[in-house]
Design brief:
With 297 residues, the protein is an alpha/beta fold. Helices cover 42% and strands 16% of the residues. It is built from 12 helices and 9 strands. The protein has helices at residues 2-13, 17-24, 55-69, 85-94, 103-113, 118-126, 131-139, 159-166, 187-194, 216-222, 235-247, 277-291; strands spanning 40-50, 73-79, 99-101, 144-148, 152-154, 173-177, 202-210, 249-251, 269-271. The strands form 2 sheets. The chain has a 7-stranded mixed beta sheet with strand order 3-2-1-4-7-6-8, with helices on both faces. Strands 5-9 form a two-stranded antiparallel sheet. The longest helix is centred in the N-terminal third of the chain and has 15 residues, at 55-69. It starts with a helix and ends in a 6-residue tail after the last helix.
Length: 297
């Protein structure tokens, strides 16, 4: 009993009382803010995958983007199969123009589309993150997609990201740079087998992706690479990086980089990956609260 109490205490307060306050108390207050208009798919549509455990962080990610950018990009929320009806209703209240897709229905539709691509179909049926590749592509209603994870917060207008999204002459995929390359394939083998120079440090948590870069025959080819299925969490990022490298890709400026040491500073955005998730609350939610996001209408 004592061991369980100690474990629960460390789990809740292990990163300090301030972190716990912003995570457990202040974070909920985003649900009292006004709904967001997100109905413009003329240029770009945001696609996100969420679950029962991270949907509240997603609300912060999305509202911080709309708040900081002033844009009304269309929004498509993909249920990983764990969202309850109450959660779906709450998301619909805050993003009334968004499409909230049912996982079971998407399984039928997308797997049917992949019938002529056996490796794609097998991967989509077996990997929990595969919808980020196949479902995002299938349901995209614009030529360009804003790829966004639920642990990304925006603090000011992401000017360069918006420019690359909205410049009709810009024809590359562009994402935030990871701390280091995290792929399931060897770049040397990729070059030898597919004649693709794999970009370094591609992170699939934030960026603009062109629909034309996600070609099913390319993905089918890449799924033949040795050991590509070797790491459950890195495979979708690897596929995005491979498609982007063949299509044309560059990283966003350094202010968008993933980093774990140091404070946010004057960056417009920060990606709070797993090892610094506690900072999303102690630093990110706290800063956005100071900036007035909880009183935004």
């Amino acid at each position: 009993m004592l061991g369980k109490l100690l474990y629960n205490y460390k789990r809740r307060f292990g990163h300090g009382f301030r972190t716990a306050w912003y995570r457990d108390v202040v974070r909920q207050r985003i649900l009292k803010t006004a709904p967001v208009s997100c109905d413009d798919v003329s240029v770009c549509e945001i696609h996100v995958l969420t679950s029962e455990t991270d949907w509240l962080n997603l609300v912060w990610a999305l509202k911080s983007f709309y708040y900081a950018s002033g844009r009304k990009y269309g929004l498509c929320i993909h249920d990983d199969g764990t969202l309850t009806e109450d959660i779906r209703d709450t998301l619909a209240q805050h993003f009334p123009a968004a499409r909230i897709l049912n996982r079971q229905e998407a399984d039928v539709v997308v797997l049917k589309e992949l019938k002529d691509f056996p490796l794609c179909k097998q991967f989509r049926a077996s990997n929990h993150l595969a919808p980020k590749v196949f479902d995002f592509r299938h349901y995209l209603q614009a030529e360009r997609m804003l790829l966004l994870d639920s642990d990304v917060l925006f603090f000011s207008e992401p000017t360069e990201l918006l420019r690359r999204i909205e410049d009709s002459g810009y024809r590359k995929n562009s994402v935030n740079a990871d701390i280091a390359s995290a792929y399931t394939v060897d770049p040397v083998i990729v070059k030898q087998q597919c004649n693709v120079s794999l970009i370094s440090r591609f992170n699939s948590g934030l960026g603009v992706i062109h629909r034309d870069s996600l070609q099913l025959d390319w993905i089918e080819e890449f799924l033949e690479l040795p050991d590509i299925l070797g790491h459950f969490w890195r495979i979708e990022q690897t596929l995005f990086a491979l498609c982007s490298s063949r299509f044309g890709v560059e990283l966003l400026p350094p202010d968008y980089d993933v980093f774990v040491n140091g404070s946010m500073g004057h960056r417009p955005v920060r990606h709070y990956i797993g090892q610094i998730r506690h900072l999303m609350y102690r630093e990110g939610v706290r800063q956005l609260t100071k900036q007035g996001i909880l009183s935004a209408t």
